[in-house]
Ribonuclease 3 (Scardovia inopinata F0304), 271 residues
Amino acid sequence: MSEQTHQHDQQNKSNDRALSPAAQELFSTLGTSISPDLFVEALTHRSFTNEHPLAHNYERLEFLGDAVLELVITETLYKNHPTYSEGQMSRIRSKVVSEESLSEIARDKLKISQFILLGIGEQRDKGAYKPSILCDVVESLIGAVFIEQGIDKARQVIHHLLDDNLAFYTTEGPALDWKTAIVIKAHKMNLGEVSYRMEMSGPENHLEFTAYLLINDQDVAWGRGSSKRKAQLDAAQKAWHQLDSKTESINDASLPDASLPDATLPVAEEE
C-alpha cells in the first residue's frame, strides 16, 4: 500500500461512519472511499452548477478519469494479449470504455443514479438515468480516486469494476466484427458456409433492411437495420450468441431456431 493510499484510508475512517448506508454500499462496490467534497464534485452535473454557481461540476474529473481509464485498459490489453494487433486492442478498448459499458456499471453495479446532482430541468428529463450522464459519472469517480490515491488505487478500482466487461469483450465474438466472428464460429463447429438473404421495405427515402443469416442454407437468425451492413451485423451478432450458447458441436439438424419474421418483402441482392 502506498503512503498516499494509507493516509487517505486513515483520514476517511471517521467519514465512512457518517455515510448513509447507500453511500457505504457504493464505496464498498467501488473498492475504496472518496473524501466528501470530492465525492460531491464527482456527482455534480453541469445543470446543477448552472443553478448553484458556487458548486463545482464533475467535468474536470471526468476528463481526467477518462484518460486514466484508457491508460489502464490499454496497459492491460498490451500485457495480457501479446499477440493482439494494434487494431484488435483498439476495438476492444473502445467497447470496454464505451458509454454502453460504463453506464451499465453505473446503473447495475454502483447504482449511482440516486446520488447524481442535477438541475431542475435535467431532473425532469430523468437525467440521472441517461447513459451519457451515467458514463460521465463513472469516469469522474475514477478521476477522483486518482487525484486522492494515485494510479495504483485507480488501477485497482478500474479492474474491480471493469474486468468482467473486459473479459467479455476479449472473447472471440465481441472482439471481432460480428460478420467475421460468425464465420469463424461456424467453421470451428463444422456447420458449413455462412450466407445472407436480404429483404427491404419502406419508402425509397427511408428503407429498412432485414437480413436473414443462413448456415449451410438453413436460417439461423435475422436482423434489421437502416442499411444492408447494419442488418447483417445485427443478424450475425444474434447468430453468434445462439451458437456460443451451445456447449457441444451441433449438426445441421440441430441448428438453432431462427424465429424468423414473416417474409413477404421484396428481395434485395445477397452480399
